[in-house]
């Protein structure tokens, strides 16, 4: 699509953002603006690249490596705006634009990594790096740039070069298609109940939300969906086993229904193309290709790590399953325990053992109170403040915006929060940026950070009340946000969360630890009606139940990791049954028999619609890091200023400026040990005399 200059001048995406802190002017952007903006920005960015490649100046770090980091700035801004909204507030027109634009962006990327003149200039700088007296951050950027070119096919010739480009374009389309299918499958299913008896066991708030959903759809009765705030409590509380099975079957078969939104062929194509891409570059598998730039370094190390965890977790998982089965039998359940029974009976067992249930805790976790508590936690640890502002354009009425300032008053970031599910939003929770942090011409460009959730919405009679799991999710995503907001790097491509995939989860999982700390809970866990602080006995119950089913939960995460590694360790294209493949991959973790129609892979967005291919193990890897890191806070005090300042200085501010293990050791003084995670999870007995 071509656009006249006159049209471009009226396109808000192609003008300097005349808004507070140059935030995106969402109130002025129209869908029709995106495609011409992309075309213009790609043209501008291509000229930037040509200028660097064809320069007559002698290649050096500034005119090649730093210049590449800066090139295409407008294109990066437009991409951030469009693709973030395509996840958080999309529609059919946007998905169609994404399918048309993605190949163009991939072609632009290929035009960089496969530009021979440009690669030669990069090579000249790289070959003289020992004589350049670079800072650690500059050395990292140079090494990252070199690897980007090599892994982007810079050394390829002839047919291999052409095929590599084709694969990149096709993969970009397939990733989008996978996410579109998953969202459609999630939105298409509704459980419509008109008989009040079928609501037996469900909490009042869940029922009220279902009634509100039915009203929105102009239906009588109650409507339940596959979105987390509806699906999770239904499986946990609904007395109707038949309806639990129906909900479970719908959720677990997303993308596996042999309809227009089926993802099985998408998976076969993506895994085959990823393998072909890796083999063109000389790697045996895609996992080998991906892990070359990770802390884990190799597929062998990942498998050893996962096996070590499984050896500790699986015996506990089997024991926990037997305990739930015996409890269910004593409660009068005569059938064989199935997956759709697990949440229901394990929750009842938890209530019996610990006198604890989400419904007891939710009144103390009003969203606004938790939000303020999370902000105050960041203030107490790092001295930063949050002030809601209403003069910044938003992309949806649910979004709130905050100015973030450092303890000395310096402006740090804009934070967008988007908490509630809607049909235009993907499931799950994530942190992202509309603009990353970097330094340009001695100016510190501060980031525009967003956290997106799918929490329970307020109803006519109740505010948004969070489950304890949702509280930890908030902390998790906010940990990512801190990584972005506190960044103090020079170069955009290594600032904030632009770090190794198996390091990026450390700040997020680290912050989750405060959810179990009374000192923090006392600041935010207040009954939404009475104002009473959460009782000490409730906090004690949370602690006592912290490792309830920890073996089973670890096994579940490991099953995802193993499926991911299996898909990306194939050495030939896979044409067989997706279900049988994943069942075999996760077999060592299984406690239940397989369910007909159930297929996890066909909705596994992290690896087929996101950036975690051959990287889902990162969550468990980061748990090792965070357990070891938080043990230092436990030793010195969870609000110890010196420890917090060290974590900020060596981890949060540094982004990807240096190798993550170097950064971690500067903070911790040692490499991490898996023992801290096993002890915290109750999967290893703590030795006497140890901290």
Q: Care to describe what's here?
A:
The chain is globular. The longest helix has about 30 residues, at about 300-330. With about 700 residues, the chain is of the alpha+beta class. A hairpin with a 2-residue loop joins strand 7 (about 440) and strand 8. Helices cover about 55% and strands about 5% of the residues. Among the domains are: about 5-155, Orthogonal Bundle (Neurolysin, domain 3); about 190-250, no CATH class; about 365-545, Neurolysin, domain 3, CATH 1.10.1370. The chain contains 28 helices and nine strands. The chain has helices at about 5-10, 30-55, 60-70, 75-90, 90-115, 115-125, 135-150, 160-190, 205-215, 230-235, 240-250, 265-280, 285-290, 300-330, 340-355, 360, 365-380, 470-485, 505-510, 520-525, 535-545, 550-565, 580-585, 605-610, 620-635, 640-650, 660-670, 675-680; strands at about 190-195, 220-225, 385-390, 400-405, 410-420, 430-435, 440, 445, 450. Helix 8 packs antiparallel against helix 12 (about 265-280) and helix 26 (about 640-650) packs antiparallel against helix 27 (about 660-670). A five-stranded mixed β-sheet has the order 3-4-5-9-6. It has a two-stranded antiparallel sheet with strand order 1-2. Strands 7-8 form a two-stranded antiparallel sheet.
């Amino acid at each position: 699509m071509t656009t006249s200059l006159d049209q471009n001048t009226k396109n808000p995406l192609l003008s300097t953002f005349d808004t507070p802190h140059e935030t995106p002017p969402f109130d002025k952007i129209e869908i029709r603006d995106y495609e011409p903006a992309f075309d213009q920005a790609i043209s501008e960015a291509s000229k930037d690249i040509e200028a660097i490649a064809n320069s007559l100046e002698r290649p050096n770090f500034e005119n090649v490596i730093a210049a590449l980091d800066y090139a295409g700035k407008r294109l990066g801004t437009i991409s951030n705006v469009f693709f973030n909204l395509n996840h958080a507030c999309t529609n059919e027109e946007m998905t169609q634009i994404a399918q048309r634009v993605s190949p163009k962006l991939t072609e632009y990327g290929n035009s960089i990594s496969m530009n021979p003149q440009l690669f030669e200039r990069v090579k000249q700088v790289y070959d003289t790096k020992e004589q350049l007296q670079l800072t650690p951050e500059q050395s990292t950027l140079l090494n990252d740039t070199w690897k980007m070119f090599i892994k982007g096919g810079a050394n390829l010739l002839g047919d291999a070069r052409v095929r590599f480009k084709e694969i990149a374009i096709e993969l970009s389309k397939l990733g989008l298609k996978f996410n579109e299918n998953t969202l459609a499958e999630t939105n298409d299913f509704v459980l419509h109940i008109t008989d009040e008896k079928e609501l037996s066991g469900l909490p009042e708030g869940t029922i009220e939300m279902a009634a509100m959903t039915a009203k929105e759809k102009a239906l009588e009765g109650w409507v339940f969906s596959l979105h987390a705030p509806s699906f999770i409590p239904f499986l946990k509380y609904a007395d109707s086993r038949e309806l639990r099975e129906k909900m479970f079957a719908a959720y677990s078969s997303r993308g596996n229904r042999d309809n227009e939104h089926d993802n099985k062929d998408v998976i076969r194509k993506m895994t085959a193309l990823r393998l072909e891409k890796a083999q063109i570059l000389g790697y045996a598998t895609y996992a080998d290709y991906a892990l070359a730039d990770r802390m884990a370094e190799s597929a062998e190390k990942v498998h050893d790590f996962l096996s070590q965890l499984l050896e500790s977790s699986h015996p506990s998982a089997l024991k926990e399953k037997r305990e739930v089965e015996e409890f269910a039998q004593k409660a009068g359940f005569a059938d064989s325990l199935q997956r759709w029974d697990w949440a229901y009976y394990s929750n009842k067992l938890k209530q019996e053992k610990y006198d604890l249930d989400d419904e007891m805790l939710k009144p103390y976790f009003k969203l606004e109170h938790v939000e303020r508590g999370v902000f105050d936690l960041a203030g107490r640890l790092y001295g930063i403040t949050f002030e809601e502002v209403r003069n910044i354009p938003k992309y949806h009425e649910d979004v709130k915006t905050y100015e973030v300032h450092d303890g000395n008053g310096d402006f740090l970031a804009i934070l967008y929060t988007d908490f509630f599910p809607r049909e235009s939003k993907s499931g799950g929770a994530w942190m992202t940026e509309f603009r990353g942090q970097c330094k340009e011409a001695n100016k510190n460009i501060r980031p525009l950070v967003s956290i997106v959730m799918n929490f329970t919405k307020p109803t006519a009679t109740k505010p948004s009340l969070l489950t304890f799991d949702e509280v930890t999710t908030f902390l998790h995503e906010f940990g990512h946000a801190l990584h972005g907001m506190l960044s103090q790097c020079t170069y955009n491509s290594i600032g904030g969360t632009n770090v190794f995939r198996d390091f990026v989860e450390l700040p997020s999982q680290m912050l989750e630890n405060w959810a179990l700390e009374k000192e923090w809970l006392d600041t935010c866990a207040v009954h939404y009606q009475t104002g009473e602080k959460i009782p000490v006995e409730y906090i004690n119950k949370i602690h006592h139940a912290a490792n309830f089913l920890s073996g089973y939960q670890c096994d579940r995460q490991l099953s995802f990791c193993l499926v991911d590694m299996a898909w990306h360790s194939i050495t030939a294209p896979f044409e067989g049954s997706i279900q049988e493949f994943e069942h075999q991959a996760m077999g060592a973790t299984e406690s239940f028999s397989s369910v007909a129609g159930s297929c996890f892979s066909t909705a596994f967005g992290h690896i087929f619609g996101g950036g975690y291919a051959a990287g889902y193990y990162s969550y468990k890897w980061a748990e090792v890091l965070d357990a070891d890191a938080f043990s230092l806070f436990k030793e010195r005090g969870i609000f110890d200023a010196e420890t917090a300042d060290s974590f900020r200085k060596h981890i949060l501010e540094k982004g990807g400026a240096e190798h993550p293990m170097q950064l971690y050791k500067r903070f911790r003084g040692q490499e991490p040990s898996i023992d801290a995670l096993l002890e915290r999870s109750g999967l290893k007995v703590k030795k006497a005399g140890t901290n």
